[in-house]
Hints:
Layout: E1 3-7, E2 12-17, H1 22-36, H2 39-42, H3 49-61, H4 63-74, H5 78-102, E3 106-108, E4 113-121, E5 124-128, H6 136-148, E6 152-155, H7 161-173, E7 181-183, H8 188-196, E8 200-206, H9 209-221, E9 225-229, E10 234-238, H10 244-256, E11 266-272, H11 273-288, H12 308-323, E12 327-330, E13 345-348, E14 365-371, H13 374-382, E15 386-387, E16 390-393, H14 397-406, E17 413-414, E18 429-430, E19 433-434, H15 439-443, E20 447-455
Parallel strand pairs: 5-6, 5-8, 6-7, 8-9, 10-11, 10-16, 11-14, 13-14, 16-17
Antiparallel strand pairs: 1-2, 3-4, 4-20, 9-19, 12-13, 15-18
Amino acid sequence: MAYQTVNPFNNQLIKAYPNHSDADIKATLRQADALYHSEWAKGSIDQRLPVLHKLADLLESHQEELAKIATQEMGKLIAQSRSEVQICAQIARYYADNAKKFLAPVKYDTDLGDAWVEHHPIGIIMAVEPWNFPYYQLIRVLAPNLAAGNPVICKHASIVPHCAEAFAHLVREAGAPEGAWTNLFISSDQVSAIIADPRVQGAALTGSEKAGSAVASQAAKHIKKSTLELGGNDVFMVLDDADLEKAVKTGVQARLANAGQVCTAAKRFIVHQKVADQFLRQFTDAFQQVKMGDPLDESTTLGPLSSKDAVETLSKQVSEAVQKGAKLHFGGKPANSEGNFFEPTILTHITRDNPAYFEEFFGPVAQIYVVQDDEEAVRLANDSHYGLGGAIFSRDVERAKGLASRIETGMVYINWLTDTSAELPFGGVKRSGFGRELSDLGIKEFVNQKLVVVRQ
Length: 456
């Protein structure tokens, strides 16, 4: 597996990175395991939390530098890269401020005596992370596990090695001891071997179904905990009483942010028939106004996809969808440029026998479905292999809340796009994975919740 920085705006190779060897992996495991058995992991949480405070400060002070690295490496608009760095700082500070409370002993009432649950680290965690949010995905694993005392080994995506190195450098600069966070440029086979090592006690992955299945299978084979955040085919439901101007504006943002390369992006727009024509007209107008270009240019509103492979995959999906009966309403092909650009695209008339009905389109492609009522909207929303997030737009919040409770997904936002914040749990169901990251739930995924009882 080649680790390279290739600018997706012009496909120019910036730098290639050497892979780590099996000897490097052995040294990493020894160092991480020694740290886990040290006072750093076993002692007071108060000694670990200052690292997260310092890391938050460093992320903010290096925001522009980190943002430019991400934009040049995977194509994210520069303003969105800055926002990603900012949310990383928020997450680091959130766990620095709240982890001690989250991991405090919890008392239980029982006739057996005094009882409580303590929270202890379990050991080394192997993390496998994707390129689309090259810092945010890392901090979601680092912050809770560093606070808990679990050393983390991370294999980042092969197309964002500069982001991986920059993040690891900041963690060290923040004062984390060697072994607390180790970045390795390694293969999938080497990841599998690490998970099998008895010193490793958990695996966390964000990525594709294929990668998630491989990691979860290996973890299960060796009786180890895993968490998965995989694909999404999220619904964006527009009811007949919705504020259409807000729904259109938010829907465009929800589909085109990060060039549509977001697991929680709005992908299936389920629109009530009474407002469908007007919504589609305004939505199309907004897509027509998109400006593709250099993601470092502040005026650009749609950047390139992450790689040539991504463009080829999306082109094939759109072509097959049309061949199977979908109507190409707008866009539909790669842009004529040296970079990895794909036109903002709208597909309509997708039937259930069309493969596109169940697929995740990782790029700026919106699917429009028209429904007659709320019942049909819920049936369509739940007729999916995925269940990560969703959005419902309605002026009747009680009506929207009722529908939100019926949608089979991990997260639902009403009158807003599927979003993220440090204090809110993040994760899905079905093929979107299992487990939760962020909030109080995320920090307890990889701890020993140990019961202690004193018999009276």
